[in-house]
Specification:
The protein is mainly alpha-helical. It has 3 helices and 3 strands. The protein has a 3-stranded antiparallel beta sheet.
């Protein structure tokens, strides 16, 4: 367990979050010096020997929260054959 001093932080949880942010920034900085391999067909990303979809890569490796939607230019393509209620 990491026992960082809380001195400038309001709580031990805030201190831990700051350490997590520092670790994440260090990970991103290290990744900037590397090339990521992206599959030309599936767009999956190879990271640490594992192929994963981009949304999983962003969430797992960079801790970015992900949500999904439908791009406006494909709504008619996807929903075009569905009759209106």
């Amino acid at each position: 367990m990491n026992t960082a001093p809380t001195g400038q932080f309001a709580s031990p949880q805030a201190a831990q979050a700051a350490l997590s942010d520092e670790a994440l920034c260090a990970r991103i900085a290290a990744m900037r010096t590397q090339m990521l391999t992206v599959c030309a067909w599936t767009h999956r990303i190879k990271y640490e020997g594992e192929w994963m979809p981009p949304d999983l890569f962003l969430h797992r490796c960079l801790q970015i929260p992900i949500t999904h939607g439908i791009a406006p230019d494909v709504v008619d393509l996807v929903l075009g054959d569905i009759p209106a209620a």
